[in-house]
Amino acid sequence: AGTSVAVLQSDTRDHYRTFQMLERLLHAPPRLLQQLLFQIPPSRQAMLVQRYYAFEESFARELLGKKLSKGTKKDLDEISARTGVSIKSCRRQVGTPKLGGTPKSRGAP
């Protein structure tokens, strides 16, 4: 039969919590490789890091030719609305170059 609303809500909260823990590891790819909590094959870990740090085309087009500055960060709400890319993703993508190169150069697979 049907699944109760309480079970669905609990399951959804669990997934969000799991993603939050995983996202912290994605901020430092070498830690993702060393962790033991999530049993993720190395090839999947590499894919997760690659996709997490990938630029979305519509967002990248908006930034091409613009100098990244505090002004650019203020424009992210507008860029997010125009491109349909979430503001959180926009902020992550603007912050990615500051991490010191590509995920691979930071120790990612």
UniProtKB/TrEMBL annotation:
GO terms for molecular function: fibroblast growth factor binding. Residues 90-109 are annotated as: Disordered. GO terms for biological process: platelet aggregation. It holds the Pfam family FIBP. Coiled coil: none annotated. GO terms for cellular component: nucleus. This is Uncharacterized protein.
